[in-house]
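Session log. Operator J.P. requested a structure for one protein chain; no other inputs attached. Running the standard single-chain path with C-alpha cell output.
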Amino acid sequence: MKLSRRLLFFLGSELGFDVIAWWLAHPLRHPRIFVPGFRVHDQVTRLLSAGDGQVIYFIAAGGDNYTNGYRWSRPLPIVLSKVAGLGNANWIPYAMFCLAILGCGVLVLAVADWLSEYTSQSWIALAVVLFPGVLSSLQWLGFEPLGLGLAIWGFRRKGRILLVLAALQRETLLAFALARKEISTFVVYFAWAGFA
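Structure written below.
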C-alpha cells in the first residue's frame, strides 16, 4: 500500500501527538528541575522538566542566569522554539509541543523516502515514531525526531544545509556528514561550537 507524502506526514505527526498526549496523561510525579528559576506551570511545562526541554525553554525565553555553552552548541532547538513562540516566553512550551509533533512528521517522511528504494510499503515508516529513542525524546518535547529527519534527508539528497541544521540540533548527527564526507558541515559546526 503506497501512501502519499502528505498523508505520511500527517500520520507521523498524529502519531507523535498521540505519544505526547500519553506522556501528558502520565506525567512524572516529581519533576527533575535542574535549571535555576524554571517553574512548572501546567502539564506541558511538566513535560519539559523530564529532560533538556527545560534548558531549551529557559534559554529561548531569555534566561540569562543559566549560561551553559554546551547547550548553545545545539542552537537549532533554542532558535526554533523562540521563533515559533513569537518571542513570548509563555508561548514557548506550546511552540516546543507543536515542533516536536511536526518533527515526527519530518522523520516519518525521511524514513519513508529512504524505504521507498526497498519496498512499496511506505506505511512501515510510521513505526519509527515508536522507537525507544523517539519515545524518550518526546517525553520532554525534544527535537531529536526533527534532527534525525533532517540528517537522513541531508544524507540521502547530499544536502549540506540539511546536514548542518541536523548537526546544530545534535552533534552526534555529524556521523551522517562523516559518511557523506561533507567537510563543510564540520567546518560550520565547529565554527559555531567555538563561538558558543
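Operator note: The mean pLDDT is 88.
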